[in-house]
Structure formats: C-alpha cells, structure tokens
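Why do we care about 3D structure at all? Because function follows from shape, and shape follows, mostly, from sequence. That is the central idea of this module. The next example makes it concrete: a single protein chain, its amino acid sequence, and then its structure expressed as tokens.
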Amino acid sequence: MKVYQSNEIKNISLLGSSGAGKTTLAEALLFESGVIKRRGTISGQNTVSDYFPVEKEYGYSVFSTIFQTEWNNKKLNFIDCPGSDDFIGGVVTSLNVTDTSLILLNTQYGVEVGTNNHFRYTEKFKKPVIFIANQLDHEKSDFEKTMIQLKESYGNKVVQIQYPLSTGPQFNAIVDVLKMKLYQWKADGGVPDILEIPASEMEKAQELHNALVEAAAEHDEELMEKFFDQGSLTEDEMRLGIRKGLLHRDMFPVFCLCAGKDMAIRRLMEFLGNVVPSVNETEKPKTMDGKEVAPDANGPTSIYVFKTSVEPHIGEVSYFKVMSGKVKEGDDLLNVDRGSKERLSQIFSVAGQIRTKVEELVAGDIGATVKLKDTRTGNTLNAKGCEYDFKEIKYPEPKYRRAIRAVSEADEEKLSEILTRMHEEDPTWVIEQSKELKQTILYGQGEFHQR
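And the structure:
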C-alpha cells in the first residue's frame, strides 16, 4: 500500500439503525476496491466487520470495525458502527476520529429511531452527513416515502443526487442528477452500464438537477454569481459547492444503492473520493489546553489511541489516528498520559481481522499496532519534544446497572481481569466496587449491552 498524504485521505463513519445494511455495504466496498476477493454475508458468518464470536451468534454488530479501501488514488478509511443504541460507544468513538458520516436507511422503514439518534450525534460533533437509501431491491422498499420522511425530519438541506427507476426485486438502475446519466446493472452488480437518461425521465431528472445546482451554488459567492448569470454550473463547480455545503452541514446529499447486490457501490466511492472533504479540509482537533493541531505531515509526530481490542492469538490491538507528523515502524514514542515509553514494532493498515504491514502513516491516517506495554484507550503518544495531549473521548452516561459476582473466590481475580478488558474494549462499560453493598456493580447502556 502506498503512503497517502493528508489531502488524499478521507475518514468516514458508517451509521444507521440495526438492519440498515452497514456491514453488507462494508463487504461491497471492500470487494469492489479489491481488498477481498469474495463478499461475505451475515447469514454465512463470514463478513469482515462482524468477526467476533458474539457478533456471529447474534447476527448484528457489537463492536465498531475499522477498514480501509483505495479508490482513484484516494484512501478511504471507514469505521462500521453498531446500529443498536446499546452499543452507542462505537458511534461516539468513530465520530471523534472521522470527518464525514454516511447514514444508511433501510427503505422498507425509512427514517427510524436509530437514524434520528445517530443524526443527533453527527449534529453534536458537527460532522457532514450523506444519506444512503439502501435495500432498494426489497419488495417492500418505498423510496418516495423515505424521501418524504427525510425532508420532514431534516428539512430542505436534504438534496437528492440520485433516484431509482423502480424499486423491488426488479431494481437495477438509478438516475444520477449530478452526472445526468443513467446507471444500470446486470444481475451480479459491479461495473454499471452508463447510459443516457431516457426521455420519459428527463423532466424529473432535470428538475432535480436544477435543485441540486441551486443548492450547490448557495455555498459559494462566485458560484452563486455564475448561477445567476448562466443558470447552470459545470460538474466540477457543483462538486465544489457540494463539498462546501457538506463542510458546513448545509447540505445532506442522498444516494441510492443496493449493497446486497453490489449495485451503485462504485459510484458512491467515486463521489467519496472526489467530493467528500479530506482530513486537511475539516475542523482541526484540539489538545487538552485548547490548541488546534493541523494534520501536518511535517509537524511533530503525535498519535491518539482511540480503540483497543483484545483478539485471540494476538492479544491487544491498539487502533490509532495520526494527529500530526508521520509515524513509522520502529518509532519510540512517549505516552504522555502514563509517562511510559512505547515502541511501535509494527504498524498496520487494517480491514477487520485483515492486517497489512505498512512502513509509514501520515497525519490524518488511521492504523493499528500490537502489543503495546502500557497504553490504554484515550492515550496520546508523542515523539521526543512534542507536548500534544488530546482529550479522552467523553461517552454517554450508563443507563442500566446490575450487581455481579464470581462463582467462587478463586475466580474473583479472573473476573476482575475480564471486567477490565471489557471496559478497555468498550468504555461505556463502567465498573464500580461498592464498599457499602460489598458488591461489584456493572453499568451499561441497555439490556442487550449487559447480556
């Protein structure tokens, strides 16, 4: 894998209600970009994202999964987040280290409670949002109803870029009003046929195109002047306007796809690579003392560990974002939170369990390392002379609690180790040793969370 620069890197969260199709979309993205040779399925228990035994057992995501793809000389880092509110910690973590959010909707149901919950978090973290209308091949899919609900919920900032020619089992084509082309797929999806828009659809397509042009022009004075003078914009000018609209949360574009049949995946990745803001264009993260840190590859090296996972046969895997500078295999860094030194003996680009060794990652990129001695989630690691210290992620307060105990005294130490590991993997778990009750109290986000 080549070393990508900050202006070539996009960090993206996959959000949406349970059943919206995030994990299936992840498979399609990985397949189309060549990371995997065959798409897995949730029923087959062989997807890249849901690879932990508990996720295979329940058939839904419990942990967030980091994966990377390369497309048109851009690196797209994704975090596939659980849909259930019980595992909201994965969403909060993701929004702290990504710059754009894709919110998937199951078009059988439209805007759901989970959609609204995740949107509120994007609002809190001021992250751009792109809505993805998924599962258009389902017999109960209702795209028009979904669009009505989106506009009722989020207003006129919702702007269509695509619409399906039809929905249900016969779904195989979309009209793209940015490109003003018809995309059509064969039964196995993948590479589309790009055709002219049929005459029967031209009036609708032109109306939506004009609305998109006007929405894009609103975010740039020069574009607005050109729009008033000429009544239109070029495709590149529209992209510029959409990017600015995304950055300021003044535009929520809507895309269509069928992740299960691998339809419209390539067009989505093309848009993400061409239009979605790169890490150097988004809001700069701040240190504990309020200093803004630009993702400068020539700055002092600093990384932030945002997730820790304990995996069989490997042990602890630490996922990090390069906040500044460059990080290389073999670097010696200081953990500013714990005062200990760490050596990054290996660094990886990851896709679930698939880890690819890389020699270097630059500011804004996301990677992983293994077997750090004394580093925890939320720690900052710096090169000598760098004094950055980034804030720990703030998670929502627990909603449920229960008392637990070891079966026997001999197991108490083992229980304590397991609880510590649980908190490390999911900081929304909170463990309290109650002296008054002489009990261990486990706090969590919900009933499913505490199973």
